[in-house]
Amino acid sequence: MDLQTAIEEYFHEKIDSINYIQEDFLITIRNGTTYRLRRQDNSGGRSLFTYAALIHMSNNRFRNITYPLNTKPFIFEDRMYYIFHNNTGREGSLENLQDVRQCAGLLAQMHKSGEGFTGQKALRIMNDLNQTDDGDERIAEIGRYIRKDLGKLPELYAHRTAELERYKKLASRRNGKFDYEYVAIADYYCEKAASLQQSLTESGYNELVTFYSLKGAICHKEFTAHNVLFGDRPYIVNFDNCSIDLPVLDLANIIKRKMRKDKWSAATAHSIINSYVKQRDLTQADINILKITLEYPQKLWRIVNKYYNSRRTWCEKSCLQKLEEIKNEKNGMEAVVRSL
To answer: Which of 45, 65, 95, 208 could form a disulfide with 145 if both were Cys (CB 3.0 to 4.6 A apart)?
Structure first.
């Protein structure tokens, strides 16, 4: 059976066009509707979790996502494809505060629609998706693909704080320009990272983890303006790395990205937060964690990790530039955090 015939049998519709885009099939049926058939890897397990999260939000009447068309995957030449409406529009821009505020309000609505998505709920949806027409399982041990990051932040911070210290010792034994520049600021940021790691235990983090383990949540994990398409209505896209985790981490991500574009303006940060809380409340524990994640030297860890784990000669210039950016944003970042 050729591709067009297989797709027409799946949709029970005649196909006008089929295009191949980035390993996906983009198809248009006779009524003009366009769909994207997204190809999965050989197991498809990770994508099955993403698909379950999208179905959960769609079932909760959240339509501002590239939501699934059908719970039955399309199979062609032993490859599995999931079917999505093909939403189009311009990407949101971090340069545009109105875009960012709309994104924050949309994010709050997304988080509300993610309530109830626990590990058990994810497994039930994934089991339904994983069944063939004959009752067999497409993917073995589907439960191991559930992505749940609740409770992992303290361990992550402890690891990265230790690495910042380790890289400081390494830099002190070398004589490159980057080594000197990192050593000059390392004491301050290593102490800051250790202090924030300790603050996390006193922030209400563990209580929120317990709460969302029972209530359920969907965290996009990479939420920023370019993951929102502004078309006939705004759509959140790119849920490939979504997880069961604290919703406030998404808000922290877009605020931090916007702040770096806006020179850490406290007024801008409050404007974004206000757009979010118009749709969904934040607790004091949420605010505590927001402040910690904004201030934790995550960017510094990425830079030194990249420098000391790559060929330093080709990345030294860009790493030095980013170190300078970190130094320049220090005062503004602290002022924003104090204002929250």
So the answer is: 45
Question: Whole-model pTM?
Answer: 0.91
Instruction: Provide the 10 A C-beta neighbour count for residue 311.
Output: 8
Each residue of 147-172: pLDDT tens digit? 999 999 999 999 999 999 999 999 99
Closest CA to 171 of 194, 187, 192: 187
Question: Do β-strands 34-39 and 228-230 pair in parallel, antiparallel, or remain unpaired?
Answer: unpaired
Q: Residue 162 and residue 24: Cα distance in Å, rounded?
A: 41
For residues 307 and 319, the answer to whether their CB atoms sit within 8 Å is yes
CB atoms within 10 A of CB 120: 10
Strand partners, 325: none
DSSP category for residue 148: B
Mark out the alpha helices in 202-297 (DSSP H runs).
Answer: 205-215, 248-261, 266-277, 284-295
User: What is the Rg, in whole angstroms, of the alpha carbon atoms belonging to the chain?
Assistant: 23
- Indicate the DSSP class of residue 86: -
